[in-house]
TrEMBL record:
<dbReference type="InterPro" id="IPR014757">
    <property type="entry name" value="Tscrpt_reg_IclR_C"/>
</dbReference>
<feature type="domain" description="HTH iclR-type">
    <location>
        <begin position="7"/>
        <end position="66"/>
    </location>
</feature>
<dbReference type="InterPro" id="IPR050707">
    <property type="entry name" value="HTH_MetabolicPath_Reg"/>
</dbReference>
<dbReference type="GO" id="GO:0003677">
    <property type="term" value="F:DNA binding"/>
</dbReference>
<dbReference type="GO" id="GO:0003700">
    <property type="term" value="F:DNA-binding transcription factor activity"/>
</dbReference>
<protein>
    <submittedName>
        <fullName>IclR family transcriptional regulator</fullName>
    </submittedName>
</protein>
<keyword id="KW-0805">Transcription regulation</keyword>
<keyword id="KW-0238">DNA-binding</keyword>
<feature type="domain" description="IclR-ED">
    <location>
        <begin position="67"/>
        <end position="236"/>
    </location>
</feature>
<dbReference type="GO" id="GO:0045892">
    <property type="term" value="P:negative regulation of DNA-templated transcription"/>
</dbReference>
<dbReference type="Pfam" id="PF09339">
    <property type="entry name" value="HTH_IclR"/>
</dbReference>
<dbReference type="InterPro" id="IPR005471">
    <property type="entry name" value="Tscrpt_reg_IclR_N"/>
</dbReference>
<dbReference type="InterPro" id="IPR029016">
    <property type="entry name" value="GAF-like_dom_sf"/>
</dbReference>
<dbReference type="InterPro" id="IPR036390">
    <property type="entry name" value="WH_DNA-bd_sf"/>
</dbReference>
<dbReference type="Pfam" id="PF01614">
    <property type="entry name" value="IclR_C"/>
</dbReference>
<dbReference type="InterPro" id="IPR036388">
    <property type="entry name" value="WH-like_DNA-bd_sf"/>
</dbReference>
<keyword id="KW-0804">Transcription</keyword>
Length: 239
């Protein structure tokens, strides 16, 4: 295959990234592999590093950057959303409560799929709604398995504690009542990505007078099973 597009800087950047597909490499190794001039390779690697397309491992060697994982997650998210709707609908029908799927969105979380109650009191959370990461069972789930630095930053303003998150990790789900909004209870469970990180949270929510102050007693099994179904979808689509 012809690796020359006619746009020199793009071809050189592509050659550098291709060299890193084999794993970490020093600048000298990359120059040997790509046959680029050392100053050119170094300049382009630093530019790619600025855009997080290239990173460094603990030894200082160049590696593919975290932006690739984010881009892959964005592609997978479309599949996740498509798979989520029937799962959330079954979860709603099984529990009688509105169901949602949240993913992290910077320092907040965003609802990317939902199934509302079809009759009676509706507790609608429209797709696209952003919510705090400082309160609510979904926020607890999305925080519980974060890297320590981000977790501590979130905990600084959270209505839950590090001990609460330890319980979430132990049980595999979170519950809350009146934490995010007075009179609202919820139960959430993690959706796992292929890299062993939590990429989303399945949740149900409704009035505390109906779900009680401890909604997990009634609904944790259904919520966990829905989250496991979506985790399996992620694994299948990645293979």
């Amino acid at each position: 295959m012809d690796n020359h597009s006619g746009v020199g800087v793009i071809d050189k950047a592509a050659a550098l990234l291709a060299a890193l597909e084999e794993g970490p490499a020093t600048l000298s190794q990359i120059v040997t592999t790509t046959h680029l001039a050392r100053p050119t390779a170094h300049r382009l690697l630093l530019a790619l590093e600025h855009h997080r397309l290239v990173g460094r491992d603990p030894s200082g060697a160049f590696v593919l950057g975290p932006r690739f994982a984010q881009l892959a997650a964005a592609v997978g998210e479309d599949r996740l959303v498509a798979a989520a709707q029937p799962v959330l609908t079954v979860l709603r029908d099984r529990t009688g409560e509105s169901s949602q799927l949240y993913r992290p969105h910077g320092d907040q979380r965003i609802c990317i799929a939902a199934a509302d109650r079809t009759m009676g009191l509706r507790d609608s959370i429209p797709v696209g709604t952003t919510m705090t990461m400082a309160a609510g069972s979904a926020a607890q789930v999305l925080t519980a398995w974060q890297d320590p630095e981000r977790m501590h930053r979130t905990l600084a303003a959270a209505r839950y504690t590090a001990a609460d998150l330890g319980v979430v990790r132990e049980r595999g789900y979170a519950e809350s009542s009146g934490e995010r909004e007075p009179g609202v209870s919820s139960v959430s469970a993690p959706v796992w990505g292929t890299s062993g990180t939590v990429i989303a949270a399945v949740s149900i929510s409704g009035p505390a007078e109906r779900m009680t102050a401890h909604p997990a007693a009634m609904h944790s099994t259904a919520v966990v099973e829905a989250a496991q179904q979506l985790s399996e979808v992620v694994r299948r689509t990645a293979s």
